[in-house]
Amino acid sequence: MNLPRLRVSGAVLRRWLTPGIGIKRWLVVVFAGELLLALAGALILRELYRDFDFGPGETVLYFMTLQFLPYWVRGVVVGVAGVGLFVWGSWRAVRGLMGPFLASESDQPLVEVIYQKRFLSRGPKTVVIGGGTGLSTLLRGIKEHTSNITAVVTVADDGGSSGRLREELGIPAVGDIRNCIAALADSEPLMAELLQYRFTGGADAGLSGHTVGNLLLAAMASVQGDDFEEGVRQMNRVLAVRGQVVPATATAVTLHAQLIGGTQVSGQSEIARSTRIDRVWLMPDNVAASEDARRAIEEADLVVIGPGSLYTSIMPSLLLPDLLHAVKASAAVKLYICNVATQRGESQGYDLEDHLAAIERHTGAGWIDVVLANNRFDAKRPGSYGAEPVKLRWPPSAVFAHAATPRLVLEDVVDPENAHHHDPARLAGAVMRVYERESYGRRRSRVPRTA
Fold first, then answer.
1. Per-residue H/E/C for the chain
2. 413 with 428: CB under 8 angstroms?
3. For the chain, which end, N or C, has fewer CB atoms within 10 Å of the first or last residue's CB respectively?
């Protein structure tokens, strides 16, 4: 018995029966039509059986009308044949109609393509702001709930391959954008492996240290006339991204920080290693946010901040004045996802209150609706990394005294095998539950009163 094959077939069948996919209702209509046709045929046969007696002498008609079988056996034979022809014919008809469209959709089953196009397209319009590993982790989970996703990604990275391309070509950092495109690509495992492939070679090798994804993004921007935003748009299309990935800004910006005590540090990689950070800012200042990011925020149902490195992944996007203004002005549910663990350097020793206080200190208070934090602390901890779970100190202190305190939601969202990372499926499920609760209350409040 081929058990894996049976399991796959069962999963496909369940997907076909998923509510909202828009298939079952039309199958019922088709079946009702077939049933009426069958009833009409039965009435005609009934009259033939009454008026004519096909004996063994009329061999062809005798066997065609199954008169050598009892009536109930004839019904079973005709019924089984009808069901088989109906299922086989319907399947072949759908395959024939959808064949031209499936040719460009990789090797996914037909039902998966329909599910993505119909069911996921009805999901909430979700904007996720951040960068780094945390953002791509959330995207891998959230894309199973909605295809209306916009990832607004920081471009302040100055290390590794991104930093070299930035210095040589003058383009914004592309590393986090590459990671998010890989996370949202429909052919994720293979595409992620290709985009993340890093060339190796001697110290003088020009490609050494560069990733394929970074080079593709740089090349696409050049092909589009050095239009970085358009280059990223075209990468979304070429790689069949579910949703879209957009840069927070099309300008190459540098992150600066001032530590407690007055010392100033420049560059994302240096700030990530620093402790006791007082404030961060971007240079040049007053840089315009990307048009795609602003438009997505204006149309969003849900805006998610994080997860990701507090000062080097989340803050750079929120420090763009018009992007922050768009978030605050949006009617969407605004959710901040706190990291599950501290980071050596920039958030070392931070608890839940410290994370939220840092964001409020840089962006103002009262605009975040909900804070989602992890409440499971028994996940496995890698021994090579000096971090610890974020402690749940709440409610916020006096820094929030003059504004509405966000509602705190605690859920098990950590990866059981790695206490330093979120679990994509658990995190996405928690985000969707928060959205359902918050958006339901907003929908109720918008219902007009009747006299």
1. CCHHHHHHHHHHHHHHCCCCCCCHHHHHHHHHHHHHHHHHHHHHHHHHHHHCCCCCCCHHHHHHCCCCCCHHHHHHHHHHHHHHHHHHHHHHHHHHHHHHHHCCCCCCCHHHHHHHHHHHHHCCCEEEEECHHHHHHHHHHHCCCCCCEEEEECCCCCCHHHHHHHHHHCCCCCHHHHHHHHHHECCHHHHHHHHCCECCCCCCCCCCCCEHHHHHHHHHHHHCCCCHHHHHHHHHHHCCECCEEEECCCCCCEEEEEECCCCEEECHHHHHCCCCEEEEEEECCCCCCCHHHHHHHHHCCEEEECCCCHHHHHHHHHCCHHHHHHHHHCCCEEEEECCCECCCCCCCCCCHHHHHHHHHHHHCCCCCCEEEEECCCCCCCCCCCCCCECCCCCCCCHHHCCCCCCEEEEECCEECCEEEEECHHHHHHHHHHHHHHHHHHHHHHHCCCCC
2. no
3. C
Question: Which listed CATH number (3.30.300.30, 3.10.20.600, 3.40.50.150, 3.40.50.10680) goes with 123-168+244-444?
Answer: 3.40.50.10680
- Residue 241 has what pLDDT? 86
Task: Dump pLDDT digits (tens) for 26-68.
Answer: 777 777 887 777 777 777 766 666 666 655 555 666 666 666 7
Which single residue is written with the structure tokens 């350097």?
345
CA 264, CA 279: separation in Å to the nearest integer?
10
Task: Using 70 as the pLDDT threshold, list the residues of the chain that sit under it.
Answer: 1-24, 45-67, 71, 94-117, 187-188, 201-205, 385, 395-403, 441-451
> How is residue 248 written in tokens?
């927070």
Q: Of 304, 434, 439, 418, give the one whose Cα is nearest residue 368.
A: 304
- The full set of domain ranges for the chain reads 23-87, 123-168+244-444
Q: What is the pTM assigned to this prediction?
A: 0.76
Question: Are 437 and 444 contacting, i.e. CB atoms less than 8 angstroms apart?
Answer: no
